[in-house]
Amino acid sequence: MSLTEFLTEELKEFDRKEKEQVEVIADTIEECLAIASSHLGRKVHEIDYTVLKRGKKSLFFSEPYHIRASVIPDDMLLDELSLLDEHLTGGSGKLVSKELKELVTPKNKDGRVVVKIYRTGVFLTVYPPSGEGLEMTMADVSKKLSFRGVAGVDQNLINKILKEKKGEPVLISNQKPKAGNDSSCNVEIAQENMRAFVTVFPARPGGRDLEVSDIVAALKGMGVAHGLKEDEIRKALDEEIHNKPFIGAEGDFPVNGKNAEIKYYVRTEKKINFKEDQSGRVDYKDLDMIENVVVGQLLAEKIPAEKGKFGRNLFGMVLPAKDGLDTELKQGKGTILSEDKMRLTAEVNGQVLYAAGRLSVETVYRINGDVGVRTGNVTFLGSIIITGNVEDNYSVKAAGNIEIYGTVQKAIVEADGDIIVRQGVTGREEARVESTGGNIVAKFIQNATCITEKDIIVQEGILHSHLMAGGKISCKGKRGQIVGGTIQAAQLISAKIIGSQANPQTDLIVGNNPKILKQISEFEEKKKENQDKLDQLTKTMRTLKARKEADPASFTAEQDAHLQKLEAGTKKLEKRIAEASKDIQTLTEYMDEQAANGRISVEKTIFPGVTIRIRNADFKLRHETKAKTFYEEESQVRSMPYEDPDETKNDWRKKRGRGKSKN
User: For the region Disordered, what residue ranges are annotated (predicted)?
Assistant: First the structure.
């Protein structure tokens, strides 16, 4: 195989690997990998990934993660097993797991005979078999000697070597090489002077075999001064690799330094962990949502950026590398940043919160009793615990979480974190519960408006209310019923019963994230505003240019300076418009990705009078229907037998072919 053919095969393999990758956008790395696993058809541990853009979460805005995922080649997986062998055995080669050892080393392998002719004589090497591989015989040796043009060898010595099969060369003859039949090699420098490919051509009968020193001399003759791979050369000669290029020398590629990163010792993302009894009741006393820290506790530390490691090509030329980028360990309220700005600790006892890329420690404000005449409206920058109710016409606002042991009446409750109402919300058409960055959890919601960027979880019922969630809406307690109102979620609506025999108007909408739609609208407004400015500047600039061309002599220096400012201004506006367009595209693609898995699941019954919209597909229930999961396909709402979304998660679409129907 020529070097050109070899490199062509390498390029084909590169193209194949490029196809085995996908770019994914999702809220977390775990979600990105789950989507990539489904798309590539490989398990998560068989996938490698690179973070293209880290996700961000703040009180008022969040950005998803953007990764490039690719399939790890099978040979690399075996290399990892070899490294695991080294790690587990300390180099002994005896793996704890027999099965793992068999994956790394072939179980059965025949023995091998090698005959080499050097200036000092003829050498024979007999390699033993492994497992149930075949032993080498006198016939095998005779055939090899005949092929190499060697005669007059001591048979007793051959039998001894065959019996011992040490895998070491033994001198068996003083026969001198036959002139003109020697082995030869060709050296080609490729890949921007980073690799030297050696092709060895076999000797004809009686000809001398090349030694490591011969190939090293050939490489040096081509100017190679760095990266000689003598072990690889020796291996290629021992294994008699002929007419096929192998790497005889390789430069050191530059390695860019790793960027600095922040290591957090507290949770930066909080999840609700429900505990249910046999009747389906949720224990709201132990949700593990508040993470308390004490004075002096280490919250985060910065791992510094690494210096880049320069490389060197085959000719000894130094190749520069980039140093890793620094990042800032940001100090929030209630924390102490060390003098070297590498460690962040808690200054006070309280709840740790993560927002806008920084940690802060907020103390918890506890109200024993109701929010009402005694307390007035409550506004607090930390988290709030209320042991009673929030009475009519009062408001509670917090920068952290809010937990209410009683009910929310005709009141306003707003938080940047989670809102938990242990009893429920009785809004009388005027209650409003809103979280900008957490979940809303309640026993029931009646005649109220609830808005959150994450999930809404209700135990018993949602009655004649308006709910909007950037994630999921779930009502799956003992009753678990949604009746009346408008229920809108970006990903999922699930309940035991939806609608009632009275057929009240109940609208279910899935697939549009209200927050992202708002952000897209804001970017579109900015884009339009900048476009209007650009149009005006362009018009003015054209007028000035026309004047300059018509009468250059009368065009003053001041006017020329003004024209240059206009040109600079148009470039800035064009850049802003391009950035806004890119942001709109990113948000739209992210929302489409979320919407692609949008579904509505009803465990028991869904009644007539319920309308369903998933993405841009609409459907109205005209008949009572049992246990269905609805989804969008080809711009139509379709259904399949009910599957619990908590169990199926991201692989539900793979199963939907069973019993699916067109509505």
Answer: 632-663
User: In this structure, are residues 236 and 198 in contact, taking their beta carbons and an 8 Å threshold?
Assistant: yes
Please spell the DSSP secondary structure of 501-542, one letter per residue.
TT---EEEEES--HHHHHHHHHHHHHHHHHHHHHHHHHHHHH
Q: Above 50 in pLDDT, residue 652?
A: no
Whether 97 is in a domain gets the answer no
C-alpha to C-alpha distance for 565 and 38, rounded to whole angstroms: 52
pLDDT in tens, 137-174: 999 999 999 999 999 899 999 999 999 999 999 999 99
- Count of C-beta atoms within a 10 Å radius of residue 75: 8
Question: Is 103 part of any domain?
Answer: no
Q: Which one, of 335, 334, 435, lies nearest residue 384 by Cα?
A: 435
More confident of the two residues 180 and 91 = 180
Q: Are 47 and 40 in contact (CB under 8 A)?
A: yes
pLDDT, tens digit, for every residue of 518-543? 888 899 999 999 999 999 989 988 88
Adjacent-strand bridge partners of 48? 70
Best CA proximity match to 222, nearest among 187, 175, 171, 263: 187
Q: What is the pLDDT of residue 628?
A: 92
Q: Do 609 and 471 fall into the same domain?
A: yes
- Looking at the chain, how many residues does it have? 663
Q: How many domains does one find in the chain?
A: 6
- How buried is 457 (Cβ within 10 angstroms: 0-12 exposed, 13-18 middle, 19+ buried)? buried
What tokens were used for 26? Answer: 């999702």
User: pLDDT tens for residues 273-287?
Assistant: 555 666 666 544 345
**Within this chain, do residues 419 and 352 fall inside the same structural domain, yes or no?**
no
Q: Is the dihedral of CA 271, 275, 281, 284 positive or negative?
A: negative
C-alpha 226/C-alpha 211 separation (Å) is 19
Share of the chain above pLDDT 70, in %: 84
Q: Identify residue 130 by its one-letter amino acid code.
A: S
Across 542-647, the runs of DSSP E, i.e. the strands, are 599-606, 610-614, 617-620, 625-633, 636-641
For residue 527, give its domain range: 516-595
Same domain, 467 and 545: no
Q: Please tell me whether residues 447 and 425 are part of one structural domain.
A: yes
Which one-letter amino acid corresponds to residue 422?
A: R
Q: How many CB atoms within 10 Å of residue 393? A: 12
Based on the fold, state whether residues 332 and 480 are members of the same structural domain: no
Q: What is the pLDDT of residue 159?
A: 93
Residues 264 and 408 in one domain: no
Residues 548 and 643 reside in one and the same domain = no
For 49-98, what is the HEC assignment?
Answer: EEEEECCEECCCCEECEEEEEEECCHHHHHHHHHHHHHHHHCCCCCCCCH
Q: Are residues 452 and 494 in the same domain?
A: yes
**Phi, psi at residue 4, to the nearest 5°?**
-60, -45
